[in-house]
Design goal:
It is built from six helices and five strands; from the N terminus they run αβαβαβαββαα. The protein is of the alpha/beta class and 139 residues long. Helix 2 (26-33) runs parallel beside helix 4 (81-89). The radius of gyration is 13 Å and the shape is globular.
């Protein structure tokens, strides 16, 4: 059973307020990721504490750097079930993880941050990690 929208709406808005596009169905995920050109950052959003305390704030902070992905998209685990399942197909060989952060370049997964790499780390550490990743892949 998906989480109620009333719970998820503020968590969605944390990302859409800084330019993330929500992908709410399979067609939108495929359109954003299949054969994409340039760089696409995918945030697998979640209601958990590490998403609230580290992942979402870290992703938002990372966008203040000089290098940024061409496109920002998000799916919401536990709510947009089909969209999340479709996005995770593009993230193989990594197991399902939420929250998670994936960077694609020209349609290929080039970097992935799993939940266990988010838990216990500060938003600033997540942001710094992403900024270094963006320097490498987002030219």
């Amino acid at each position: 059973m998906p989480y109620p929208e009333s719970i998820c709406a503020p968590m969605r808005q944390e990302l859409t307020a800084v330019g993330f596009e929500e992908l709410k169905n399979v067609a939108e995920v495929d359109s954003a990721l299949k054969d994409s050109k340039g760089t696409v950052l995918v945030m697998v959003n979640s209601v958990c504490g590490c998403a609230a305390g580290s992942a979402r704030p870290g992703v938002r902070m990372s966008l203040a750097g000089d290098h940024k992905p061409d496109k920002l998209v998000t799916v919401f685990a536990g709510q947009d079930l089909e969209a999340t399942a479709e996005a995770r197909k593009f993230m193989v060989p990594y197991p399902p993880s939420s929250p998670a952060i994936a960077l694609f370049k020209d349609g290929k997964l080039v970097h992935f941050i799993e939940r266990h790499q988010i838990e216990g780390r500060s938003a600033a550490i997540i942001a710094e990690h992403l900024m270094h990743t963006f320097e490498e892949f987002c030219n």
